[in-house]
Design a protein that fits this description.
The chain is mainly alpha-helical and 348 residues long. It has a domain of 231 residues. It is built from 13 helices and no strands.
Length: 348
């Protein structure tokens, strides 16, 4: 049987075949279509711009976890610590008079990256169970610290006296969410392009090698702990930017930004979309947020039941998430076309 001649599915990147990566210097047609959809959605769904902005922010947050879970194999149950830290950084700057949004993003990224770098030495040297407990502990400790420091953080009431200035002094955040939408989309796209280049670089392939066989990587001269520390720090910075984006676009920071439930939802999003695929984080965020909004509107008391059922179906029938399931369907049709071509067009 001849191998398939179809080009790699651009929204895929199956961990079992790590070398089949998107070329960083050329975009595939489906990728271009994927990024044109948000522009069309702005004109088609004017009444849902706030929800769509939050989907993009959650997608950016999910990208940060996919960097360490999908590519480096670091399991985390406390990733909301970096998200919340970024949110509080941008929020406190705005409350105390520094309202310029872009510098707020940079400050959130820097502080979250610093905290990620410091805590990475506790995380990268453990195994899966150890990493789960350490990251969970870090998240719970930061949550309680923010709760106790109510004079600074507002405690359970959060920060609500934020005043976020105009972007570049021109674009003011409006009630309809127009500015917040394009602001979130622009930040998401710019960071996605950077991460796309990163995971397709030799450094990114080295991370996959660590995930697949970390004990063998030192034999080829790779410093495993150093690479994991770098990607954990980058991941923390991206999560901090996502938290700052949420704070600036909603002009509110709640204690739930540091909660365990936010970290757990993030894992659900990656399972739905597929880990080890940058687009999996975005697709998972879209499906989860839209399903949550729709089901909660139908049944506010039991929406989690249906989310749980959807998650079980994905795990049972589409291993590798939604994109993994699509890839299997594509491969099945590709193999069928190959068999048909090999038999001269005659069906058995």
């Amino acid at each position: 049987m001849k191998p398939s001649t179809l080009p790699p599915f651009p929204l895929s990147g199956t961990p079992a075949r790590p070398l089949q990566k998107l070329p960083h210097d050329r975009w595939q047609p489906l990728e271009i279509v994927f990024w044109l959809i948000p522009i069309a959605a702005f004109f088609l769904f004017q009444g849902y711009l706030v929800l769509l902005s939050q989907i993009m922010i959650v997608g950016l947050f999910a990208l940060s976890l996919d960097l360490i879970l999908g590519y480096a194999g670091i399991v985390s149950l406390g990733h909301a610590a970096f998200f919340g830290l970024g949110a509080y950084t941008a929020g406190l700057l705005a409350v105390h008079g520094w309202s310029e949004p872009l510098s707020g993003l940079l400050a959130a990224a820097a502080l979250s990256a610093l905290f990620g770098f410091v805590t990475s030495f506790l995380v990268v040297r453990g195994q899966d169970l150890t990493r789960l407990m350490v990251t969970l502990g870090i998240g719970l400790m930061l949550f309680e610290a923010a709760n106790k420091a109510a004079v600074i953080t507002g405690g359970v009431d959060g920060l609500s006296d934020m005043v976020v200035g105009k972007i570049f002094g021109l674009f003011e955040f409006d009630l309809n969410g127009n500015t917040a939408y394009f602001y979130s989309l622009t930040v998401l796209f710019v960071l996605f392009v950077c991460l796309r280049r990163l995971v397709n670089s030799p450094f990114g392939l080295g991370l996959i090698g660590i995930r697949e066989g970390g004990k063998r990587m030192p034999a080829i001269g790779a410093d495993v702990n150093q690479r994991l520390t770098v990607i954990f720090t980058i991941s923390a910075a991206i999560a901090g930017v996502a938290g700052a984006l949420l704070a600036q676009t909603t002009q509110f920071v709640g204690l739930d930004s540091l909660s365990f439930s936010r970290s757990a939802e993030l894992l659900i999003i990656l399972v739905l979309g597929g880990t080890g695929r940058l687009y999996g984080a975005l697709v998972g965020a879209i499906v989860f947020m839209l399903a949550q909004d729709y089901i909660a509107g139908l049944n506010p008391a039991y929406w989690q039941f249906w989310i749980g059922l959807m998650l079980m179906l994905i795990v049972l029938f589409a291993r590798g998430g939604i994109l993994g399931g699509l890839e299997k369907i594509r491969d099945r049709f590709a193999n069928r076309s190959t068999r048909t071509a090999g038999s001269g067009g005659r069906q058995p």
